[in-house]
Amino acid sequence: MRLSEFLTDIGQPFAYYPQIAKLCGGVKEGIFLCRIIWWQRDTGEWVTKTMEEITDATGLSLKEQRSARMELKA
Question: What pTM did the predictor assign?
């Protein structure tokens, strides 16, 4: 299987803004916040996603999500 075929089969890529990561305290915080902003822009409403859905979308583990939330709150 070619790499391009493999990448097509595993889903859509997700980009984030590295400058947001610098402002928020790290890459995981930047990825987390960018994904929440992305979902929020679709509806203008609160984002209601489970931690598992966030893991599927970002690759962040539950522990990384908790840490990112704590850092963003601080």
Answer: 0.82
